[in-house]
């Protein structure tokens, strides 16, 4: 299920995660070559991604319960 990014936070290992409108979270690491997200490293880059839709796997799983 698509959910909008409403904020970002750092986990205990200093990896960024998105906070979604549904309340769930999803990591958005910049970890080349697997994940190329250099925008997450700057405040401006994260700000530009607010409102972007991400697939929330937790919402998908809950819809099957």
Number of strands: 4
Shape: globular
CATH class: Mainly Beta
List the uncertain runs: none
| Strand residue percentage | 25-35%
Helix-strand topology string: EEEHEH
CATH architectural type: Beta Barrel
Task: Give the spatial strand order of the biggest sheet.
Answer: 3-2-1-4
SS element count, helices: 2
Mean pLDDT: 93
Q: Helical content, roughly? A: 10-25%
- From the N-terminal CA to the C-terminal CA, the straight-line distance is 14 Å
Question: What does the main sheet amount to?
Answer: 4 strands, antiparallel
* Fold-level CATH name: OB fold (Dihydrolipoamide Acetyltransferase, E2P)
Number of domains: 1
Structural class: alpha+beta
Helix and strand topology:
Blueprint: E1 2-10, E2 16-20, E3 25-27, H1 43-49, E4 53-55, H2 57-63
Antiparallel strand pairs: 1-2, 1-4, 2-3
Descriptive overview:
With 65 residues, the protein is α+β, with helices and mostly antiparallel strands. It has one domain: Beta Barrel (OB fold (Dihydrolipoamide Acetyltransferase, E2P)). Helix content is 22%, strand content 31%. The chain has a four-stranded antiparallel β-sheet. Strand 1 (2-10) and strand 2 (16-20) form a beta hairpin. The longest helix has 7 residues, at 43-49. The radius of gyration is 12 Å and the shape is globular. 5% of the residues are buried. The model has no long low-confidence stretch (mean pLDDT 93).
Name its key features.
65 residues, OB fold (Dihydrolipoamide Acetyltransferase, E2P), globular, 31% strand, 2 helices, alpha+beta, 4 strands
Write a compact overview of the structure shown.
This protein is of the alpha+beta class. 22% of the residues lie in helices and 31% in strands.
């Amino acid at each position: 299920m698509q959910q909008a990014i409403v904020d970002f936070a750092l986990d205990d290992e200093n990896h960024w995660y998105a906070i979604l409108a549904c309340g769930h979270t999803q990591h958005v690491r910049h970890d080349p070559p697997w994940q190329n997200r250099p925008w997450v490293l700057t405040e401006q880059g994260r700000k530009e991604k607010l409102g972007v839709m991400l697939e929330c796997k937790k919402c998908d799983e809950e819809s099957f319960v």
